[in-house]
Amino acid sequence: MKATGIVRRIDDLGRVVIPKEIRRTMKIREGTPLEIYTGTSGEVIFKKYSPVGELVGFAEDYAEALAKSTEQTAAICDEDTVIAAAGPNKKELLHKNISEALLTLIKDRVKYTGDKGVVAVDGSGLTISVAYPIISNGDVGGAVFLANTTGEKPNDTEIKLVLAATEFLGRQMED
Prior knowledge:
By secondary structure, this protein is of the alpha+beta class. The protein contains 4 helices and 6 strands; from the N terminus they run αββαββαββα. The strands form 2 sheets. The protein has a 4-stranded antiparallel beta sheet, with helices on both faces. The relative contact order is 0.14.
């Protein structure tokens, strides 16, 4: 844990304001769900909640299956980071922050099929060939995507496989 030197008081309704600098750095926006933890030494810890992050085991298995069947790099992300990746360029994606362009696709619920050269992770050199948002109970939680270094467009089978993955993971999040 890193100390910030910022002190805030709790108001009479039990609320505390998270400073703007921390919200901006951590990409916490209005409506962002936070999980609250307590430590053994009296700490209160806020952590961004990721419903997709709860499915890491499923996500890893699904990314592996997608990568094998498409021979591309397959990845699953929440609205911040890539939580699972498999395939030839997995190390360039796994646990890295997603690009602003990918975040925009997710938030706008775009079913993207590689026509604009969207980069998956800034600095990775991998462009997305197909990306679909994961939707659960009407909320967007992340995306499943295939990425490559060639800018190759997806075929119909790859698009259907990614769609199936998003449907499956969305249903898992509902349970």
